[in-house]
Amino acid sequence: MKRFKDVPISILDLAPVVKGGTPADSFHNSLDLARHAEKWGYHRYWLAEHHNMPGIASSATSLVIGYVAAGTEKIRVGSGGIMLPNHAPLMIAEQFGTLESMYPGRIDLGLGRAPGSDQPAMRAIRRGLGSDGSDFPEQLSELRSYLDPASFDSRPPGVRAIPGEGLTIPIWLLGSSGFSAQLAGQLGLPFAFASHFAPDYILPALHLYRSNFRPSEVLDKPYAMIGLNIVAADTEDDAKRLATSQQMQFLNIIRGRTGQLGPPVDSMDTLWEPHEKAHLQRMMTYSIVGNKSILRDKLEFFLKETEADEFIVAAQIYDHQARLRSYELLAEVKKELA
Description:
Low-confidence stretches: none
Strand content: 5-15%
CATH class: Alpha Beta
Order of helices and strands: EHEHEHEHHEHEHEHHHEHEH
Number of domains: 1
CATH topology: TIM Barrel
Radius of gyration: 19 Å
Shape: globular
Largest sheet: 8 strands, parallel, barrel
Strand order of the largest sheet: 1-2-3-4-5-6-7-9
CATH superfamily: Luciferase-like domain
Structural class: alpha/beta
Number of strands: 9
Number of helices: 12
Distance between the termini: 15 Å
């Protein structure tokens, strides 16, 4: 049976823009966190593509990946993820070929098929709403053909990705349902499940991925990474208070609003209705809020339940120093169990 001490841990950074802050502050904080994560032994550092969201600064995801990779030395840096239907596959092959050429052996390409935005932003990005993600397998095949023309035959004649062609850039499929899970299994690719915001389907999706898995040149057995929300502090009460920033952010999502990440509050009781609280708690099933003892117990439980090969952790915490401390405590838990 796997133990948490043997499972790599990674970071999913949503590059939060906090109330009173700017995207520039967010980028500086992301780089600072990545440098600390490298020192603490985290395996990879991923950034996500979102658009039209005032509280998330990583819309130009490839640029932020390059910024973080330039400021670190060995930690893997990548996308969690690039929303492929928003882009021409050639452009992504070239962008990540450029990143891999600059930072060899350190770049991951995680791909999703969701828009990462609302409908007005989708219209602006895609010049309409014609692409609904249903052609994702074809887009993925075209992208892979630019990187490895000898193994795939999906690129337009006479078109090459330079840089990109011939480079080994690990491709991951990301998802919150069974579609990407099944496709990742059939293609023999690693799979990352977004249980940090869509926990209801995690176990069926993992079953689909593993039962459909076919060995490939990339993997000889399934490799599943599970997203978690973790807010840790030296005391349980401090962690619970810090976590209210994330709870308010999820509450805004439930209500169809967007905004910057707000400071924590002493209580959520006056902010949510009972049905909203229940919905939010269900959304945060794969979340851990507490001290190191609580982290140890819940991580072992989630590992036993999912048999994850890796955990990737998001921490929407208003204060940057508190966010650093949260990730440091998680690293300490792993080290103490080794």
